[in-house]
Design brief:
Layout: H1 21-32, E1 37-41, H2 47-55, E2 58-63, H3 68-73, E3 81-85, H4 91-94, E4 100-105, H5 114-127, E5 128-136, H6 163-169, H7 180-189, E6 192-199, E7 205-211
């Protein structure tokens, strides 16, 4: 992990270095729908944002940390790629009046409490027209082996990893980890129909959803 960057205790920015299976499925959809608008929530330094622009999307990237300089350095026109710094939990206010064809939210939702995540996902269901590509750290992951709140009821499950876990995974903020069934239920309760979900070899949970009302 030596070459991977971490930002303020929020794990490593994997997307800068590689695209995982969910990233690639997003890119395939974009390639089949050139010109589609995409919201990249928890974008980090923009690894996946850049791939999506190259695949033909118009991308709005949002992160609480200031990556404006990195995004400006990529050389894309503002009409292709823009970065917005702000709190993703207030996305309706942050991007007032905007809607998107797709949203992608990788390795981000677990940094929110269960109820905050539900509120965000409910907001997203009103902003996204077609698909949501989303992942979360799961209870069967190596991260969960260092998570004291494994048996805590979901609504109250929001704690730091153990000291060993914080050092190993560069995750210092409280997290809420999910089983696959719990994550699917969270999405359903927030207004999403889960079309596909899977647990990866690393124990993370990936899902592709559409708004239930669409």
């Amino acid at each position: 992990m030596a070459d991977y960057q971490t930002f303020d205790g929020h794990g490593v920015d994997v997307a800068v270095h590689r695209a995982d299976n969910l990233d690639k499925q997003t890119l395939a959809y974009i390639a089949a729908h050139p010109g589609c608008t995409v919201l990249d929530l928890g974008s980090g330094a923009g690894g996946q944002s850049r791939r999506m622009v190259e695949a033909g999307a118009v991308v709005t990237a949002v992160d609480q940390f200031d990556f404006a300089a990195q995004f400006a350095g990529y050389g894309y026109q503002a009409e292709q790629l823009r970065f917005v710094q702000g709190d993703i939990t207030a996305i309706e206010t942050l991007l007032s009046g905007e809607s998107f064809d797709l949203a992608i939210c990788q390795r981000t939702i677990h940094y929110l409490s269960y109820h905050t995540a539900q509120a965000l996902l409910t907001q997203l269901a009103t902003l996204v027209q077609a698909k949501l590509y989303i992942s979360v750290t799961g209870l069967s992951s190596l991260v969960a082996d260092t998570y004291p709140a494994v048996d805590t009821p979901l609504a109250a499950r929001f704690e730091q990893l153990s000291e060993l876990g914080r050092e190993m995974f560069s995750i210092h903020e409280p997290v809420c980890l999910y089983s696959e069934a719990q994550f699917k239920q969270l999405l359903a309760d927030a207004g999403w129909t889960v079309e596909l979900s899977k647990v990866t070899a690393f124990g993370n949970i990936q899902a592709i959803c559409k708004p239930t009302t669409s």
